[in-house]
Amino acid sequence: MLKSRRNLLAAIVIGLVAGTVALPSFAADKKLTFGFAQVGAESEWRTANTASIKSAAKEAGIDLKFSDAQQKQENQIKAIRSFIAQKVDVIGFAPVVTTGWDTVLKEAKAAKIPVVLTDRSIETKDDSLYVTTIGSDFTEEGRKAGHWLLDNYKGQGDVNIVELQGTVGSAPAIERQKGFLEVIKADPRFKVIRSQTGDFTRAKGKEVMEAFLKAEPNINVLFSHNDDMAIGAIQAIEAAGKKPGKDIIIVSVDGVKGAFEAMMAGKMNVTVECNPLLGAQLMDIVKQVKAGKPLPKRINTKEGIFPMESAAKEFPSRKY
Ligand code: AHR
Questions:
Q1: Superfamily for the 30-135+276-301 domain
Q2: Pocket of ligand 1 (CB under 6 A)
Q3: What number does CATH give the domain 138-274?
Q4: What tens digit of pLDDT does each residue of 239-288 get?
């Protein structure tokens, strides 16, 4: 009995080596699973980013487990823990804020699940907690906004700027502000007189701009960390009887269709591009990570800048 079993086993091994016996193919057929914790649905940019990730996963044959954190870090942490419990192959997330990730990322590392960051970066002393970050250079976006303003502002005298910041503690809010201030300090006429968060949403952008307008009779420029807040602010400026794009110059970031419509109507002066269509590149990276291929710690997206004069020409080809 024992001998015949041993013979059978030997025959299978010889067959496998010779290629005449096939093992059940569940291992080869198993879809790669990718758990992704998204920031939320706070802006046009985010909606385009989510759509890009979902369609790219489908296209790449990756089983995407998607979670929407509604702009709350605790929800993202919960989602990451649930991906660990489900033993996904790779975890990805766009961190709502930069700090406070080490504990959960150590849990992912202990479970041997690689982590990829997209869109926003984190602050950590331990770089081994994630493989790579793919996204925009937010500091450079802030610099581009600052340069555009210095080069194109036509008025005389002091230039009073109000700033609508993104989510407090988020990488785009911290870095866009840093890049913008770094550039405008070259000309002492340009001063940020008020700065407050509008949490990257249209509603908050409108609300905070209303407060700015009540407090400051002399606003020359709005620097908004995203288009949604700028569009909300445009409504507030019009309601206050002023002309957005003329009485108040509007400098924004993202380059969503809504911003192009505002520029074509003469209500926004410039938008610095921040590309949300990261899905295909992200899925490619997920596959490479799973295959153990080495990747750079940072992969930056290429981006441009669109002044209002280019809006009508660019609009038909805009994808988000
Ligand atoms: O992290 C990217 C930023 O997040 C976009 O500029 C903004 O619109 C979004 O909500």
A1: Response regulator (3.40.50.2300)
A2: 42-43, 45-46, 119-120, 172, 200, 226, 228, 253-254, 274
A3: 3.40.50.2300
A4: 999 999 999 999 999 999 999 999 999 999 999 999 999 999 999 999 99
